Amino acid sequence: MHGHHSPVPGDGPASGLLDQVEEAEAALRAAAERGRPGAPDGHAVDADPQEYFTALIEADQKIEPRDWMPDAYRRTLIRQIAQHAHSEIIGMQPEGNWITRAPSLKRKAILLAKVQDEAGHGLYLYAAAETLGVSRDELVELLLAGRQKYSSIFNYPTLTWADVGAIGWLVDGAAIVNQVPLCRCSYGPYARAMIRICKEESFHQRQGFEILYTLAHGTPAQRQMAQDAVDRWWYPSLAMFGPPDRDSVHSAQSMAWKIKRFSNDELRQRFVDMCVPQAEVLGLRIPDPNLRWNPERQSYDFTPPDYAELMRVISGDGPCNRQRMARRRRAHTEGAWVREAAAAYAAKRAGRGPAATRPAARDGRAAA
Ligand code: BYC
Fold first, then answer.
1. Considering the entire predicted model, what is its pTM?
2. Burial of 298 (0-12, 13-18, 19+ CB in 10 A)
3. Cβ atoms within 10 A of the Cβ of 281, count?
């Protein structure tokens, strides 16, 4: 069963999730074709805006940037999408740490592409947030000032090459389980960004799985390295889904607005149920002595993560919080000239700004 080139039968560990992404994409198209409730042009002229908003949500239509929406809905989306965008950008650091030390040219090329994908995801998400009336600059400032969060998971160190595999398998795996339902989120720009992101993310999960599979079937030292990485990343990955439902302050309202479709605990359970058979294929052990199938619930029982630790990490006191933020601040400062150059170029292209009034570019061609 364990052929060298195809460790997993079928299309890979995330293939079921990819089907759900396709279904969400079809639902998005169907909703657009169905048209909106109310006036034939899609605008309910006479309706009370709050009522019309509620009707759109109930009809599983998307809320679009031009639509009226309650302030709290807008604020919740900005908070969640910005946090998500920041996570993608900060998330480049732990894996970026291994680009220069990847064990082969092929592994290095794959990892480079993956980290670049994460920058791209950050950009799609900042763009989605901008449709809500905040600028990317403002959001970046809020992150740098410590006033917006990013995912707890990126405050743990990547100690060995196997951590790159464990991040792909577990962290990207948790990310997809959380994000596939967001493809059906009620806010159109976020839902559309998530469809694209999930397709790429499932590929990321497969590359992590494949790294771990290779190590787990290598020398005893490589196998041990893979197991050690899984031991360290398991509980922080479970914690990515957020506090338990009883402590989740935003869940009820976000679910009523169809931003979230499932609760934190429901998604955490789904993730555990997905990982157990995959760990068997890998030949690695999930570090939980209480993990066992519960026939009544048709799910695995498991030990929850340490939520007090999650709260500490979220509030800035994890193993790498300071290092991650310092690195991001430095990159932001060092990147100032790129932003200035891009802005000057854009101004020049638009025929505004000082550059456009100069007679000729340095190479002798007329300024466009
Ligand atoms: N880390 O009421 P709750 C990725 C905060 S990127 C930090 O349940 P909500 C990837 C929460 O924000 C992964 N903070 O909140 C990238 C809230 O605080 P505030 C990121 C957390 O929003 C590169 C408070 O705790 N994914 O996948 O209903 C490479 C109470 O929580 C965390 C996303 O951002 C946490 N783990 O639910 C590889 C997905 N958990 O804001 C992979 C989108 C909770 O009131 N986000 N908090 O100060 C979501 O789905 C939801 O925001 C969450 C939390 C499920 C995370």
1. 0.91
2. exposed
3. 16
Q: Whose Cα sits closest to atom 9 in ligand 1? A: 250
* Residue range 105-119, pLDDT digits in tens: 999 999 999 999 999
φ, ψ of residue 360 to 5 degrees: the values are -150, 150
Q: With a 6 A CB cut-off, is 171 part of the ligand 1 pocket?
A: yes
- Could you count the other beta carbons within 10 Å of the beta carbon of residue 249? 9
Coil, strand, or helix at residue 109?
helix
Q: Which of 201, 249, 209 is nearest to 229 (CA)?
A: 209
Give the span between the Cα atoms of 318 and 325, in whole angstroms: 12
**What is the 263 CA–ligand 1 centroid distance (Å)?**
12
* Nearest atom (ligand 1) to Cα of 79: 41
- Tokens 């992101």 belong to 197
* Residue 234 pLDDT > 50: yes
Query: What dihedral do alpha carbons 133, 250, 21, 81 form, nearest 10°?
Result: 30
Are 237 and 229 in contact, with CB atoms under 8 Å apart?
A: no
Q: How far apart are CA 70 and CA 65, in angstroms?
A: 12
